[in-house]
Amino acid sequence: MDFNDTREEADFRQEARQWLTKHAEPKSGAFETWQSRYSGREGWDGLERAKAFQTKKADAGFAALHWPAEWGGRALPPIYQVIYAQEETKFLVPRGYFEIGLGMCMPTLFAYATEAQKRRYAPSALRGDEVWCQLFSEPGAGSDLAGLRTRAQRDGDDWVINGQKIWTSGAHWADWAILVARSNPKAPKHKGLTFFFLSMKSPGIETRRIKQISGASHFNEVYFTDVRIPDSQRLGAVGAGWGVAITTLMNERLTSGDLRGPDFEEIFGLARSTVLEDGPAIRNAAVRERLADLYVKTQGVRLTRFRTMTALSRGETPGPENSIGKLVNAPKAQEIASFAMDLLDMGGVVMDKDVAPLRAAFQESLLTSPGGRIAAGTDEILRNIIAERVLGLPQDVRVDRDLPFEELPTGKR
Amino acid sequence: MTGSLPGLARRRKSPPLASPRPMPYDPRAVNFDFSADQKSLREQARKFLADHASSTRVRRILDGAAPYDAELWRGMGEMGWMGTAIPEPYGGAGFGHLELCVIAEELGRSLAPAPFSSTIYLAAETLLLAGSDAQKKRWLPRIAQGQAIGCFALAEGPQAPTAANLVTRADGARLTGSKTPVADGDVADFAIVAARTGDGRVGLFLVELAGAGVARTPVTTVDPTRSHARVTFESTPAEPLGAPGEGWRLVERLLDRAAVLVAFEQIGGAQAALDMAREYALGRFAFGRQIASFQAIKHKLADMYVGLELARSNAYYGAWALSKDAPELPVAAAAARVAACEAYYQAAKENIQIHGGMGFTWEFDCHLHYRRAKLTGLMLGSARRWKDLLVARLEAGAA
Fold first, then answer.
1. Is the domain of B183 the same as that of B139?
2. What is the pLDDT of residues A233-262, one digit of tens each?
3. pTM (2 d.p.)
4. What is the pLDDT at residue B95?
5. Best residue in B19, B28, B342, B345 to probe A by mutation, most A CBs within 10 Å?
6. What is the mean pLDDT of residues B280-293?
7. Claim to verify: residue B143 and residue B46 sit in the same structural domain
8. Which residue of B310, B344, B389 to mutate against A (max A Cβ within 10 Å)?
9. Percent of chain B at pLDDT above 90?
10. Cα–Cα distance between A222 and A286 in angstroms, integer?
11. Whether A372 and A269 share a structural domain
12. CA-CA distance, A221 to A166, in Å (whole number)?
């Protein structure tokens, strides 16, 4: 048991560090992001700079380390992706532009598209020339994705799409998208879906930004009115879209063990620098107990990730322990934010960056952290996943599995 | 009897650490798991304990008069477990603390009713940390061969023992005072005793319990599968351990080491309780279906699993720090203890809940883990106290 790279891993880490030192800028603060530094023209400056960086990254062979060499990858085991990501966290690098395309859309194309299509789309996605998004969730289909209602109707060699998607990251600047839609409402819900990819420039697509409670807009609603997709852009068989969507979702990236916002180090620092009614916050027994709880959770998630990486480094399949990270971290982010503001007492409500500690990072986190408990699997769905996939418990009794989709009861929301 | 540890027959010298990096602020790719040899030792330990520390055997101690399972203890000696981390010059197998952690996890899983933690994690560790060469030569070979039982006498009744409140005193080389509870104090051959010395500080002393001036009375605890006693000293001859006046510091160092080892017993126990709860939920039907299909039960089991995995990862880090005697040990040990105390108690408590009415019968085994979870949760000091200690150590590290 130790904390050392293998020789090959150490060599690779050195190579990645050298390349990043030469081509990327260091962060000016722990919470600085690409978007906060390059936010001009409603974020379009950031996109253009991100594309330029991505091209350099692809040319250097770091953009898709585990892809086969013929698609510009290095065919390396997943541990190298983790090592590269660790080195990258020390630098200001673009996030949120290419992950969906490279991590979810391209693996789906690799599994279901023609050779000609792969040659057409993979290199441009890898180099950042074309950005992709994923049209899955709908207003009536979140945790229950298979309940989606966006219609796909066959018309000659085309399909015609009508309906609405929501929570689509990056739809406002994406060039291409993958889409799952309902082709047969008379079939049971999982059996009437078909999967496509399409140009986001297609006539009939309208994208609207969603303003979140933090005031930021990371997501979109996407409306489809008689949008035409050639049948050649169908992925998988008609009615087999659910299986294709599962392929996409199985390619979720290994998530980082750390929070993007304030974590244990920040709340610990705040407790040491804040004075309560009875002296320094760090001397207060109730504060100390909560700090200890937060430390144990924080360390637990980070160390659990090291166990996952160890399995990857040994060429083994990671154990189920990797599934706990988001379930622990997302509520913890919310707790840290709220706890920090409690320490600041009446002044805790102030969000002015020049007044609030850490330029209001805790207050920002109070407003962003609820999303973390919902996006990419709610706390409740994650518990179901642990219960079913890790502990092998049965699924809940389902009333929607065998009925025709159009006969399923629906509510007003 | 020789230390056999069959799983470690192919032991290799591990390469020296190039530069062990402090965790977690400079994360690197890692080798953060037990080795194949250590995992094979775990399998052997599990098999042995399934046969020799079954629930039936544990219940013999629960219901009977014997303080511990002597046959099991002999068998553990034959397996060489007592000598795992004792160096070869003192009659041990000279493996290490990682191997000891692996064995501890299995002992915790099986609820082994034997004086292992007292003798090995506390008494032998004290001798290794602070014993003179003569003391080590006298006791360690006997411990390694399973011929001597040791115990650790710190607590003095229903309050947290501290450097300030210990009453037991040492006048020169003679002890006077009373210690309660002392795990395995009724069966041990010798005790490590914390007492106040003439200068008002705390020192550690080694006392042979068979001699004059020692009175031992069994005390009932919440977990009768582990034997406890009140041990009273009346001008009892004792040998000092370690440098004079270093006593309380030594107590803390010792408790840190034991905290990691006990954490492994706790995660073993928590895993067993989770497994029991899962099995029961799969087999029990209510409202026309398996109760394991209800989200109220599934989410409870998922939370038990999450608590256990957080504790397991913290315990692994403690094991690493213990095996390297790393400067991170005090923080790692405190975090391992806090996480393991809470995970085991949560798993044991919710295991009863998932079993419903049968869960609080004597007949079902749920209460064995419930008792052991609380016992291990207090035997080295409460999680409440360790949390305070953890924050104090983080402050010292950040100063």
1. no
2. 999 999 999 999 988 887 765 544 567 789
3. 0.91
4. 93
5. B28
6. 97
7. yes
8. B310
9. 88
10. 47
11. yes
12. 4
Q: Nearest residue of B to residue A318 by CA position?
A: B33
DSSP state of A404: B
pLDDT in tens, B10-63: 333 333 332 232 333 333 446 889 999 999 999 999 999 999 999 999 999 999
The one catalytic residue among A42, A48, A70, A252: A252
Q: Report the domain count for chain B.
A: 3
Are B17 and A324 an interchain contact pair (Cβ–Cβ within 8 Å)? no
User: Is A103 a member of any domain?
Assistant: no
Asked whether residue B214 falls in the same domain as residue B299, the answer is no
User: What's the pLDDT at B24?
Assistant: 36
**Closest residue by Cα to residue B138 from B70, B80, B208:** B208
Tens digits of per-residue pLDDT, B106-144? 999 999 999 999 999 999 999 999 999 999 999 999 999
Tell me if residue B192 falls in helix, strand or coil.
strand
Q: How far apart are CA B187 and CA A295, in angstroms?
A: 39
Residue A350 shares a structural domain with residue A288: yes
Task: Give me the residues of A, 154-213, that contact B with CB < 8 A.
Answer: none
The pLDDT tens digits of the residues spanning A358-391 come to 989 999 999 999 999 998 889 999 999 999 999 9
Question: Range of A56's domain?
Answer: 7-95
> What mean pLDDT value characterizes chain B?
92
Cα four-point dihedral sign A320, A323, A324, A325: positive
Residue A252 annotated among the catalytic residues of the structure? yes
A283 to chain B, any CB pair closer than 8 A? The answer is: no
Residue B364 belongs to what domain range? Answer: 248-398
Here the tokens at position A87 are: 């080195």
Q: Which of B219, B245, B271 is the last residue of a domain?
A: B245
CB contact under 8 A, A1 and B35: yes
Is the pLDDT assigned to residue A412 strictly greater than 80? no
Q: In the Cβ-directed half-sphere of A226, how many Cα atoms lie within 13 Å?
A: 1
Domain boundary residue among A217, A250, A283? Answer: A250
In chain B, residues with a C-beta closer than 8 Å to the C-beta of A310 are 30-33
Q: Tell me which chain B residues have a C-beta less than 8 angstroms from the C-beta of A304.
A: 309-310, 312-313
A318 and A223, same structural domain?
Answer: no
Residue B266: name the closest of B155, B105, B45 by CA: B105
| Chain pair A-B, CB pairs under 8 angstroms | 191
- B366 and B290 in a single domain? The answer is yes
Among B259, B276, B394, B272, which residue's Cα sits nearest to residue B340?
B259
Residue A277, SS3 per DSSP: coil
Omega before A78 cis (within 30°)?
Answer: no
User: Are B29 and A384 in contact (CB < 8 Å)?
Assistant: no
